[in-house]
Amino acid sequence: MFQSMKKRDFVVSLVCGCTLALTLQAGESPQQPNPDWPCEQVLVAEVPAAVVWAGPSIDGMEQVWEQDKEVESLVKQFTSPDFDTDVADAEISAFSSKLQGSEKERKLTLLFAGVIQSLNERRRKELDGIIRYAQGQTARANRLSEELDEMVRLQDDSSQAARERLALMQQEMEIKQRMFDEREAFIQHLCTRPRVIEERLGVLARTIAYYLD
Questions:
Q1: How far apart are alpha carbons 108 and 140 in whole angstroms?
Q2: Domain of 116?
């Protein structure tokens, strides 16, 4: 009897844990219209230029910057995940020193247009990846919940087959629960990745704007 109660307590505790995890995954608030978005920060599809840029408008420059090979090369360099933003100032200074007047303003603005477009595209891929990851967690939580329901039903079955099935499921559930928790904890790391891109964008935007006349 005592062993049976321990098993039932174990099952119930796991049910509660998975139900809580599922609730957190599926929860929706007015500020988070996408129910699959798991991060604390509000989901914003892209960073508007006005948030980080005080220079001339980049309207109409979304594709034009790619036609300037020097600008395109710098954009690829600056937006590479391996690029050290500490050297951005020297690179932009060298680039702008070769330019004068309106050409300088136009090319620096083109450079920013390329940087924000490229980083927004990369950031969007990160957001999509986070959402897919969270959707996978929700599906796993649903499967765990179904298995836990079965374990509860097996508690009321006194047959040898049911006891053996329950014992096996308990062993497997401990492993599945641990893997689920590890994946859940990893979400916090994933949520930092868009912020890293936003910080890079801010640094580059301020550095480029500094060299505008």
A1: 48
A2: 2-210
Coil, helix or strand at residue 41:
coil
**Res 62: pLDDT:** 81
Residue 50's pLDDT band (boundaries 50, 70, 90)? very high
CA–CA distance, 4 with 173 (Å, rounded to integer): 17
- The Cα–Cα gap between 187 and 134 comes to 8
Tokens linked to 51: 């948030």
Q: Please give the DSSP secondary-structure letter assigned to residue 31.
A: T
Q: What is the predicted pLDDT for the residue at 23?
A: 31
Contact 109, 58 (CB under 8 A): yes
Q: Which residue has the tokens 């702008």?
A: 96
- The radius of gyration of the chain from alpha carbons, rounded to an integer in Å, stands at 26
With a CB cutoff of 8 Å and minimum separation 6, the contacts of 57 are: none
The structure tokens listed for 139 are 């599906």
CB 60 within 8 A of CB 113: no
pLDDT at 26 over 60: no
Q: Number of structural domains, the chain?
A: 1
Where does 28-159 show beta strands of DSSP type E? none
pTM of the model: 0.75
